[in-house]
Queue: 4 jobs
Job 1
Amino acid sequence: MGMLNELLHCREVLCGQHDNRTNIKKSIIKENLYGVDIEKGAVDIARLRFWLSIVVDEETPSPMPNLDYKIMQGNSLIESFEGIDLSQLTYEKEGAKDKGDFSLFDDEKNRLQKTVSYLLASYYSCSDHDRKEELQQEISETINKQLESQSYNSEILAQLKDLNLADNNRFFLWHTWFSDVFNRDKKSGFDIVIGNPPYVSTKGREEEEKRILIENYGFADDLYSHFIFLAFNLLRESGVQSMITSDTYFTTVMKSNVRKVLLENNLLQLVHWGYDIFPEAMVSTSTFIVQKKKSDEKHSFLVFDMKGRKELRNASKYTVPIKKYKASINGSFFIPTTLCDAINEKYGQIHYSLLEQWSEIISTSKNIAKHSIILDKYREDIKPGDITLLGLVTDGGQGLATANNGKFVGVKSGTKAADNINISRPKKLQELNQSKGTSYVMPSDELEIWDLFDCLKEKYGRDIFGQGYLYRIVPDHMIANYENLSDEEKEKGIANDASFVPYDKGDKDGNRWYLETPYLIDWSKDNVKFLKSNSGKKGKGMPVVRNSGFYFREGFCYSDIKTFFLRCRLKGVSVHDVKSMSLFPLSEKVPYYYIVTLINSHLMATVVYNFLNSTPSFQINDCRALPVIIPTEAQLEECKTLFDKAISVQKEMFAGIITSDERDELLVTIQDEIDAFVYKLYGVETTDYLNHINKPYVTTEA
């Protein structure tokens, strides 16, 4: 509808307003506009709106135009069926013999008069109901003849014939229904493709859907990425596409293919809208305009930032050389503020080169182990002042998923978590008695309580008390002296009754610097044997043991759900679970306290948000891509002093010496010192960088 109004305006400006507006609109709809949607309701509404746009200018309303083959239903991403490419089903150009003759008729004189294009054009102009039905039948028969002429097996042919090819949601025959667009001499394809594609992830979708996407596009990702690639396939050379999508392609690693294809073509305009453009959409959005034409290295384009703005004309506006984005940190589409420009100017090219060389090698712990010799040599050779990637000097990741925390995990006696369990256990038992008509009584002995709840879960189901509910309160005498465990006990479990060890379950409160975890896991021999021997087996309730070689090691972890500032803290000696994104230094040149300090700084938060991942989720490969400067001994000493200050404040809060509000106030001052240290360390001292500290570019609650 927007394009109809734009083209109407253009026609009136170019030709004057002498022609009848209704006739102009009808001409535009017939000759210029095509639409596809997978939802039938959306197609019906679009057709109705076209009709309404015509009758609004008429004294006597005319019938609705024949839009059956103009605004159509279909899965626009797919033009194949069971692996068979259907894009040249009815190829109609003269001289087609050079490309494979797909014509349907031997009589050359009549061939061009009997093409699908001719029948579709006739249908659009037809006003006689009976003739319309005849034309629909002819169109169907013509396509079926072509189907029969192909070397499809009988089963595939039967399935295709059973489908209503003009009204299905499994694929869409772009080159058949819109054949007039693709049969234009020297301009095969659309002049303009626009869209507001679905913001739908393929995570958790049917494997068959992913397989088809991979088969057609070479990858399976958020659907909007596929629509961008589809648009380039549908455009003629020098044609233009514009999409409004999520802005995740600005930064995330998974969207580097989208950034690459946009930069390979003639990118004209990029608008960062943020979170306010659609009230019902809980994502940050953007639009772009790009021309299907190889980009010139001297080319520049416009970037608009709508932060704090309501109208595009008031947006912050930047003219950006395309070469700046082609060699930026992470190859990202960053908003070129003074601060971001300064960061990228200093580290863009080297970071881009590091990723080009190492990203695949450090993409997983398995790959890191596979290339250990090369990486060990690399770490030996790095020296103070060098820039590296965090993934080159650390390893780790997610930890253990027990699949039944109630059975394995407890909390330390005397903690707030234990107090909460003491309150909730009687209520849980009472609720079960009421729902099952039973009369179980809460034992007085702690171990008997465990046995009772274990038995009830066995009888009524793992989640009878709620998924992940913890009911074990562990007394001190059952906690192992985990600092002195042997290597065998760490690997195979503990033989005596004091078998509970610290368990890092992540931290939903997002504590930075330090956390005293109340959680413990029963690391007995029997439990460890069960967890490891069943790890990864299919079926409900099967555990997954990841990165077990890093259990009982000191490192650092971070919350994968972030606001602007990252939330990183010391990870003590413990077993860590799937919610604890934990990494461990592999070189004394970059100790854990140094890395925690860097990640908690304003500069690193700026790098992450603007260059690595602007979404609320901070993934392991985002963390591995952080640019890290190898420090001098003096810089390490200064960093350790600042780190210890922050840790001390956190410990005082957990000990009850100060309140959480007092803790926050003290940490603000320490944060300023840390930010000044890190900005100086990285040599990014722009004239206004101090204005950015504690005034982040964007703050969004997860």
Job 2
Amino acid sequence: NYDGNDPQGSANLTFTRASNASRIGPDGLIHKVRTNLILQSNTFDTTWFNVNTTETGGQAGYDGSSNAWLLTKSAASGYIGQNISKSGLHTISIYAKANNSDFIVIASGPAAKWYNLSDGTLGTTTGVIIDAQIESIASGWYKCTYTLNATLSNVRFYPANTDGSTSGTSGSIYIQNAMLEEGDIATQYLATTTAAVSVGPTANVPRLNYSNGCPSLLLEPQCTALNTYSEQLDNAAWTKANLTVNANQTASPTGYTDADKLSEQAVNGIHYAGQGISSAAGGTYTFSCFLKQGTTQYGGFRAVVNGFTNRYFVLLDLSNGTVVDTNTTASGVTWTHKVDTYANGWYRLSVTAAHTSGNIDISISTSDTDSPSYFGGLPTYLGTNKYIYAWGVNITQTSYVQSYVPTLGASVTRLADAAYKTGISSLIGQTEGTIYLEADIQKYNESGFYISISNGAVLGSAIYLFQPSSGTLQLLVRNSGNPDAIISILSANWTAGFNKIAIAYTSTTAQVFINGTSKGTTSFIAVPTCSQFTIGSRPDATGNLVGSGPYSQALLFKTRLPNSSLEELTTL
């Protein structure tokens, strides 16, 4: 936001992030990037190749349209297909309806599945698939989905007359809206033409985050989720002990039914699902997981650093998200934990600690009480087949919990965000002015740049608010690259979290207000000449040393506001 002197919108910020990400939408749900990899997803007479079939468009569809197709075969094993190279965990889906054939077959090279379109039941499987579903839609239509973790070279759809066979020489079915996507569930259909289509916070799309109900621009540094299969705790990458994991049992924080049920077995002992990272580099790590109450009220996880030397368990009452117990099995490490509330009864628990060397891991556990006995840092008790829900596990080398990063068979890196505007000398006060920021400052003990005006040059002329690794906010004035003045604001005088900050300057002085109070004044030789406005990043290298957090407002005024106005403007 600016002070109103830009009616043509020339001050709109440029936003960059060279990777996908996630955000909390206005519905309170986590929005991830979804992609349909099938081309011409409902134009079956184009990119698709056919073998002994014909495709006739203009048919009545499941959605009330006339966009369905009649797929008719003229010889045995007739099918329509598309060559797509894909490895890993993926799901194929298509809407289908019987005509004078009762089955559709979905195949992708290593495996095939028959679906009975006359009675809505699943048929024969050849090869190995993870899951198959058939969902009744309306008027005889079904949504057929097929999930496997393998390498495929094509996707094919066959009309079939009998279960387990494609031998019939004639027959037809109706088809509509095909989709291939990563993950173990089918999400809402995305239409494609000549290229794959993605929706959500894709690369270089700004993230308007609604974690506090109102939209704020989410800017974060680079972050790598080191663990694999963050949503598939049933995968073999997760070790289980006296615990059964059933996939996709309830709606996750995304709103889709892709959260897993973790059921304690009727065994006396510890009950957990865990995953570790071998020989993790030294540094500070944050472990996080989304948890929801099932038939048992209590659940949490154990974080481990330094090769099992240091362990810390946090237990939640999942009826209200309250921490009811912790267990530390060794000294020498400072642990912090945090609980955030999400939609659909979910809580995100995060634990942060410093790691020196060796392995790190996370183990998600149930408990039968709010004050359990512990063995190896986990609750130990006689299970009674009760369960909790879990989803969205991240292990990141960060000092605080960041936005969720989904993973499948490998670690995933979300790159840094940046927002800036160059060439706006006329919008910046060159002799006096005020810079205003509302932000949820998360990086309390890491280097980060929050807001600046500058000439964009490396260590050039600038006025910027940043944080060295000490946790002290600093206002730094540079003139032609030389440090001219510094205001240091000790961490005791500001709060990690939501802050309202104003920087007011004249030709030779600057003053900082935070949350209604003046935090310091300094003098300098002259106001630096500036042409660039940057938030959430270093002004001369956008995307580096990001001041992480949601930014709800940023303003430039070409006048130095009076102190009374600054106090009022920054009061929480």
Job 3
Amino acid sequence: MGESILSTEPRAVRRYTTCGELRRQHIGRTVTLKGWVHRRRDHGRLIFLDLRDRYGITQVVANPAHSSAAHEVAEHVRAEYVLAVTGQVVARPEGTVNPALSTGEIEVLADQIEILNPAKTPPFPIAEETDVDESLRLEYRYLDLRRARLQRNLLLRHQVVRFIRQYLEERDFVEIETPMLIKSTPEGARDYVVPSRVFPGHFYALPQSPQQLKQLLMVAGFDRYYQIARCMRDEDLRADRQPEFTQIDLEMSFVDVEDVLELIEGLYTEMFERFASKPLQAKPFPRLTYEEAMRRYGSDKPDLRFGLEIHDVSSVFQNTSFGVFRSVLAEGGVIRGFAVPGFADATRSQLDQLTEIARSFGARGLVWLALQQDSGHLTARSPIAKFLNQGELDALAHCLQAGPGDLVLLVADAEGTAATILGRLRLHVGRERKLIDESVHAFCWVIDPPLFEWNEEEQRWEAMHHPFTSPRDEDLPLLDSDPSKVRAKAYDLVADGFELGTGSIRIHRREVQNKIFSIMGYDDTEIERRFGHLLRAFEYGAPPHGGMAPGLDRTIMILAGESSLREVIAFPKNQRAQDLMLGAPSPLDERQLRELHLRVVYPDGEATPSRA
């Protein structure tokens, strides 16, 4: 409820009544409302104005028999004009009560109407939730933000942030701000960089996350840190990614994996039970190892709101006469697939389309079998039916828990490739067949991922998460013998098929951190240049520590039921990282470039500081 002179508690900030607070008990009072004209309806002698602010809508009546001056002004008012209205709260006539509005039992009979600011006709409707081209919405974002949907989303964001702060502070966390101008240590996505005017040729980086800074806060003795942290990454965009985003950043000392998972799971359980419109599918959250998630769902962010679990059926085809399967198995590959319940009646056109989709995901082909029953025996309509004997068909159905009426989809390829293809195909089929249970939120943890992944282009090991992640204790000897088998003390929080956040227990000993950097191909000089500040800190008594950084934007997106981050951020960028409202990015003028000691070289090779 908004603050106003009608509030029972003394609040001296607002000297008018909001458009969402008047009720039947206020009948007879004289009030002043200020807001935007949501709708205007001229009924001849009577003019009705729906006045709107972020608290709600109140109907105002301009009656010439009551106030000719107010009625005269109302004749000139149009949608989105900003008004101040003074009048008496009266009951709506019988039969005109609007139960859809919290103020629907009353209206304000206008004594005086003042136009505080007129408005041009908006480029799209504000009062109705109609489809509007996103580029137009982003260009006029200040108008888009007046619409009810975005107002709800941003108010939800505010409430969730307030809840997060309270939850963490009740558990002894301290909010500490970290700098926005830091050193570039490009071990992850590309940095946004800021040139230094004072130090020519030198640059700051905008933080991709406060990772090293929060670790240094642990060295400093702030054993429970958090921050609603602004972060920037120069990476390709999509619906659930923005160049600047917000993390629920936190770090704790003297903890291990279980401590962090318990804290975050408690935070998200209470948050979603308070703010979500749908229940949680399971509590506590299921835990899957990275290997298990990839094997069963073909993804490290599995959507558990539907089945279609992937199975390895390689053993079924050990003696197959089907040449494609035989050659893939001989090369060390696998045959994996899943069954789609009740889809054996798929048309050839639908099956061809699935095959093309699988190819677009990287598959060399897709094998399908429509299972049927004939004289008590399982049969299959399939291009490979003639290569299958009854034993193989029965064993395949058993492995996939499939039966007559189901469609089987199989991919034969290298293990990692097959997993990724089937994971994407599983999601596609789940959406197309409407198998996803949209009535729940399904969380899970994905734990114990590999510490390293191999960069084929650069022929070196890279950190799968980041290079400060601790190996599992039992895998430390493998750092010397087989880095590919080293598992990380890391964990991802997944909800409804989205990765909400990644965290890990960090390395806190210099010798282990040096070893990781060495495996990644850095020599001693490079290690000192990039990370010397952190490694020196480890020599002064760094405690064991770990943490996590769930994405706030993605969290709010899921809570609000949106499919794009842009719907829960006040001033987002478009998919080309452009701010269409401000016109950013934009060129600098010649004077600014000279001050920053910069020269712009364009793709055609021309160099000029003033070219637009």
Job 4
Amino acid sequence: MSATATAATIPPTRPASSRPASVAAAPRAAAGLALTERVAGQEQLLPAPLLGLLVSLHRAIEPERRARLAARRERQAAFDAGALPDFRADTVAIREANWKVAPIPRALQDRRVEITGPTDPKMVINALNSGAQCYMADFEDSTAPTWRNLLAGQRALAAAVDGTLTFEADNGKQYRLRPYEERAVLIVRPRGWHLDEKHVRVDGQPIAGGLFDMAVFAWHNARTLMANDRGPYFYLPKLQSMEEAALWETALSQVEQALGLPHGQMKVTVLIETLPAVFEMDEILYALRDRIVGLNCGRWDYIFSYLKTFRSHADRVLPERGQVTMTQPFLKAYSELLIRTCHRRGAHAMGGMAAQIPIANDPEANAQALARVRADKLREVTAGHDGTWVAHPALIPVARAIFDEHMPTPNQHHVLRQDVQVGRDGLIRPSGGSITLAGFGNNVEVCVRYMAAWLDGNGCVPIHWLMEDAATAEIARAQLWQWLHHSDPRGCQADGSPVYLDDGTTIDFDLFERTLAALPGRLGDTIHLPGGARIGEATALLDQLTRACQFIDFLTLPAYARLS
């Protein structure tokens, strides 16, 4: 079966009248474009023809991007009024038809262990040398998007692709890439549709951050990667609908056209990390069917999206985040439906992140943490996942051992999971559990410490032996808002149904204030913490976000305005 559907009754991915205009051949002069900041070497990284491509892309994509973001707001307003997400009635034909995605390239056939992380040179070298099958270089949740960080990341990736990247640490240690055939396959995650790139303005508007990340990487690396049968490959984040997937299809297709690449050369994996998207997995695969190779269980963002979607639903308040594991019924249903959907369509069903990092100087605690990783990876591989994520190189052998034992083939598309019968109610079932004082305090601490580091330019932070990024911090922040606003009479969602700690204490803003006030004592000397100098600013920002009656969709939106 080709990537083209067999049923003529399948509707187009969106009405033809709403499709963005074609990107014209990139002009050499970037009329209408303004760069609001400059760093050394910028002109070589952003030459005039590339800037011209960015102008053309923005003009073609931006109207539809704005329409898609407006559609998100409209949909969320319906959820706030009591509506529940569900499978679409207008796309039944797509879900019922017999079609498959395009064949998967050889380099992406086996993805049993992938490592993720930011794009600084040391991380890029270590990740590519790590022994993982793939490395997801992350411009989104684990990168604070300062202009310097973004350009340094693009420069590091370009040097990695051509094999010249090196790094020398302050202590003189040298980092170099292993031979080409020993390196992980590079996959780049651009930012989501909701994020602007304020340093690049076209016709007075900021360009979409994801367009900038994707186009700059493709411009510098696509031909080399294609010549080596390595892509380019991308992870697409935060999608909420098939229309948003179709918009990426338009952007990617037209960059291919501008660069003289064959259609479908740039392959993608989509992260299913929003609650609305889980109801449109078939549709997202279909919209990207000429280039998509799989879906990924982006579990942390997915939990955050559950909280955000149901922020006004008092009957769907979740317990503390440490108890919201993949064994919770709504998360188990999500992962198993993803496996069934992907394997039916010939696509990978990638598992989620193990955020643990080695616990130094405590062998017993470290052994317990590794046991949790093994149990999580065993659950994934026996359920039918084709691969998994880790945040630290030390976890690669742990994850690989589990997948090697239970998945002797490169993937397990043959595991069709026809036993999985998941309906709407199973995907949104509330979780059982409790909220402890320690869990409440941990949420506050993680939010403050992560935001302080992010404001200081660091988007990936180890806290209590877990690697925290924007997604995990968002869970903590959203839970604080939901607990307080439903429980405290002063909250904007209070309905007479208080939320209690497990000891019977009512969660209210007084408890929040006491926890914030006690945080300096809990942290001690912050001088050695990432972003320690900005702890006060981060504390004030968390207080502002938590008290606001309107839930802010992403903490990185107001924080971006403060990012130097």
